[in-house]
Amino acid sequence: MEKTLNRIHPVSDPEATYFLQVSWEKDLGTGFGVILSDGQCAWTGTASEAEISREAADMEMNREKYVEELKKALIAGEESAGKYNFAIS
Fold first, then answer.
1. Cα–Cα distance for residue pair 47/67, rounded to 1 Å
2. How confident is the model at residue 42 (pLDDT cuts 50, 70, 90)?
3. Rounded mean pLDDT of 28-48?
4. Regarding predicted confidence, which is higher, 77 or 67?
5. Which residues of 47-81 are buried (b: 16+ CB within 10 A; e: fewer)?
6. Contact at 8 Å (CB) between 34 and 54?
7. What is the pTM of this model?
8. How many other CB atoms sit within 10 Å of the CB of residue 22?
9. Which of 13, 14, 28, 33 is most buried by its number of CB atoms within 10 A?
10. Mean pLDDT over the full length of the chain
């Protein structure tokens, strides 16, 4: 299993720091798990392969392109800094 951990500063609260861990087996397109933490609390979730396909279709985006964008937003880290915004709600 592969994992990444990135520090994010959401646009909804720019002074706050969160940590986003993403874990996956083969690639993000086959599903992944997430853990979001503010250092005091943690929230977990998963995205299945079917959910990823459904979201790509809902956005009228080629599935492979959608998975590439997920990689850039969730696991690329510093190379994508400033290109993606996160909002915590």
1. 12
2. very high
3. 95
4. 67
5. beeeebeeebeeeeeeeeebbebbbebbbeeeeee
6. no
7. 0.83
8. 21
9. 28
10. 90
Which of these, 78, 74, 79, lies nearest to 28 by C-alpha position? 74
- CA separation for the pair 80, 18 (Å, rounded): 16
Report residue 75 as tokens: 């696991």
CB 20 within 8 A of CB 75: no
Q: Quick one: CA torsion of 26, 32, 38, 39, rounded to 10 degrees? A: -50
Q: DSSP readout, 8-75?
A: E--TTSTT--EEEEEEESS-GGGEEEEEEE-SS-EEEEEEEHHHHHHHHHHTT--HHHHHHHHHHHHT
Looking at per-residue pLDDT, the higher value among 82 and 54 belongs to 54
Within 8 A by CB and 6+ apart from 58, the residues are none
Q: Which residue has the tokens 């250092």?
A: 39
Confidence of residue 81 (pLDDT cuts 50, 70, 90): low
